[in-house]
Write a structure and sequence with these properties.
Layout (H helix, E strand, L loop, with lengths): L2 H35 L19 E5 L14 E5 H16 L23 H11 L1
Antiparallel strand pairs: 1-2
Length: about 130
C-alpha cells in the first residue's frame, strides 16, 4: 500500500472511530434519560428489568430517527433486546417489500384474484324471483 493510501486509510479510520464515539455518547445520554423517565419494563413483552439485566433494555426510536431525541422522551420506548430486534426486522421487511401489504389499495393482476362468490348476487336475485 502506498504512503498516500496509508494516510487516507488512517484518516478514514480516525473519522469512523470519532463518529462511533460520538454516537455512543449520544446513545448513553438519551438512554440515561429514558431510564429515568420510564419504568424498567419492555414496552412490548412486558418483561421487567433490574440489576445486571437492565443492560438488556434498549431505547427504541418510534420514528426510527436516532437524531430525534426530544427531552420529554416522546419518540422513545424501552424495549428488551429481543423485541427491539423484532421491531427493526419488521421495519426492514416493510422497506424491502416497498411497504406494500395485502389490502393496502394496491392493484393486483386480475388473473391472480380468486373470486369464489362472483355472480352470487345474480344467483340470489334469480332464486328470490322463483319463490
Amino acid at each position: 500500500m502506498s504512503q498516500k493510501a496509508q494516510k487516507e486509510k488512517e484518516k478514514m479510520d480516525q473519522i469512523i472511530a470519532e463518529a462511533r464515539r460520538n454516537r455512543q455518547l449520544q446513545e448513553n445520554t438519551y438512554r440515561e434519560k429514558a431510564l429515568k423517565l420510564f419504568p424498567w419494563v419492555c414496552g412490548r413483552c412486558g418483561r421487567e428489568f433490574e440489576g445486571k439485566k437492565l443492560r438488556e433494555l434498549t431505547v427504541h426510536h418510534r420514528d426510527h430517527n436516532h437524531d430525534n431525541n426530544p427531552p420529554d422522551g416522546s419518540n422513545w420506548e424501552l424495549l428488551c433486546i429481543y423485541c427491539h430486534d423484532n421491531e427493526h426486522s419488521r421495519y426492514l421487511d416493510a422497506e424491502w417489500h416497498d411497504g406494500i401489504s395485502p389490502g393496502d389499495g394496491q392493484e393486483t393482476p386480475s388473473s391472480s384474484i380468486n373470486t369464489p362468490f362472483a355472480g352470487l348476487a345474480e344467483l340470489l336475485k334469480g332464486s328470490k324471483k322463483s319463490e
